[in-house]
Description:
- The chain is an alpha+beta fold.
- The protein has 2 domains: about 1-195 and about 365-455, Aminopeptidase (3-Layer(aba) Sandwich); about 195-250 and about 295-365, Alpha-Beta Plaits (2-Layer Sandwich), CATH 3.30.70.360.
- It has 12 helices and 19 strands.
- The protein has helices spanning about 1-25, 35-50, 120-135, 155-165, 225-230, 255-260, 270-275, 290-295, 335-345, 375-385, 400-410, 435-455; strands at about 55-60, 65-70, 80-85, 105-110, 110-115, 145-150, 175, 190, 195, 195-205, 210, 295-305, 315, 320-330, 355-360, 365, 390-395, 415, 430-435.
- A 6-stranded mixed β-sheet has the order 1-2-6-3-7-18, with helices on both faces. A 4-stranded antiparallel β-sheet has the order 12-14-10-15. Strands 4-5-19 form a 3-stranded antiparallel β-sheet.
- The longest helix has 22 residues, at about 1-25.
- The site of one manganese (II) ion has 5 residues, from loops.
Amino acid sequence: MQKTQHFIQSQKERFMAELFDLLRIPSISADPAFAGNVHACAAFVAERLKEAGADAVEICPTAGYPIVYGEKIIDPSLPTVLVYGHYDVQPAVPLELWTTPPFEPEIRNERIYARGSADDKGQFYMHLKAFEAMWASGELPCNLKFMIEGEEEVGSSNLSTFVKQEKTRLSADMVLISDTSMLANDTPSIDVGLRGLSYVEVEVTGPNRDLHSGVYGGAVANPINILARMIARMHDENGRIAIPGFYEKVLELSEADRKALNLAPFDVEEYKRDLGIDALQGEEGYTTFERTGTRPTLDVNGIWGGYIGEGAKTVLPSKAYAKISMRLVPNQNSEEITALFENYFKSIAPHSVKVEVRPHHGGEPVVTPSDSPEFKAASLAMKETFGKEPIPTRGGGSIPIVALFEKELGLKSVLMGFGLDIDALHSPNESYGVFNFYKGIETIPWFFHHYAKIK
Ligand code: BES
Ligand code: MN
Ligand code: MN
């Protein structure tokens, strides 16, 4: 791996310049206004893959945004690693909260500020550069396949079709993903679990038109008041979700697992200071790590209706809306949970309103082994570059395709992410540490080195 590491050290500036070019493309998958940019981003990734030395590079069309594929098969008898990442990013709004524009990357305090810097452009690009370095140095120890998609942030529904159709092309021994975070730069960790997701939009309709809130107020149901009351009934006083049957399939952790999970360092004062809050809140009886990694949740992501313009307009609105997400844990199932939500939500609606529940994308939770050869290889790799073995952790976020890799391809994933909580994923001023970008590029070749030996 020495030549590879030398290559990396000698090419650092170019790697950063290329990442900046990637970050300049506003590949926002959720907003159709950016469709041209998302396609341009796929083309950019395909070009960089070819330059890095990948063969069979293809921009695979789907019913939505394309999947970029590439591979390097050096010897079919060697193990094959499938690298997954996503080149799409979340919307950057509200733009006025960014210190510098989201698609004009800039380094400040050793951090790369741009939408997608950590999620996931800065992270998947580390894999392209690590591969380039290994290939150019004649030190690539196993076969590699790349699959970089453009719809992760909108639920990966076309990727799941692709995965089902392309089982031969995607055949591999494992999946390697960098799209999660670690505890700290001096405390490496690897997520061995991700939560699933149910996402719904609700619509509450009262009168057939907006009304004068003086003429009708008090006699006709106000859908915003009603929706607020219904949302308040989603949790009980102990922070538990009140939907009947919601916890039925939740796998409780063993005492040993809980202990192991809580061994990771956690500074509650620092956590609160970072967020500007005076107290934490959540399900009674669980620690913060347990609440974010192992317990299901329900959150309102947005709520609207009525008059929100300048000044005051006296109006009793006809409609109220909310977007609600539920994070799921093993063995909950997103379709079942969505159905339970819908039943409960309708059951608590008064006769004075009509309600509609529209399901959005979902995804299943996963737990990956921490005693497998692939986990061991990741652990050894991080030990090489961080000087410490990583701690197994549970990530609170979701990468729905991970459960599908297991179900459709029979492949386990290793979530070797290099981000940090302070990266502000999906928020204004998203950033990624310069340290983390280079550390990732240096660590990944060690992963291949150890995996090829262990496997
Ligand atoms: N990379 C994140 C998921 C993530 C971040 C997992 C940090 C663990 C730690 C991913 O891009 C993401 O944002 N996923 C979405 C789900 C998707 C269906 C929109 C999420 O978790 O909200
Ligand atoms: Mn991501
Ligand atoms: Mn994301």
